[in-house]
Amino acid sequence: MAAGEAEAARVSASAVADEGDPRLTSLRTAVERLRGDLSGYQAWLADREVAERELTVLAEQLAGGVPEDALLSAALLRIAAAVGSVSALAPALGQLREAVELFGVPRHRVQPPVRHGAP
């Protein structure tokens, strides 16, 4: 089997296997929604390129199957930092966060400070 045929077979087998994983479908949908919403957001956004780059990396990783947890977590963090303050993008960003959490990537929460001494 030629190298091109082997790659085509791998991609085809991967696509069939991925169809049974609703997490991948959810993440693909969320990535495309945020890409579309970001594209439609015409106001200046300082870190637009960062968000677009991270969404492209996520889409490429999804083409290969289930992405690594570290990649998902880091990409979500960078995307949230880039677009998190834009209320028009908040619903799509929330959908992306929820899709990433389906892979078991924990939500990062700030813990309240521990008080020492008398209450």
From TrEMBL:
This is DUF5955 family protein. The lineage of its organism: Bacteria, Bacillati, Actinomycetota, Actinomycetes, Kitasatosporales.
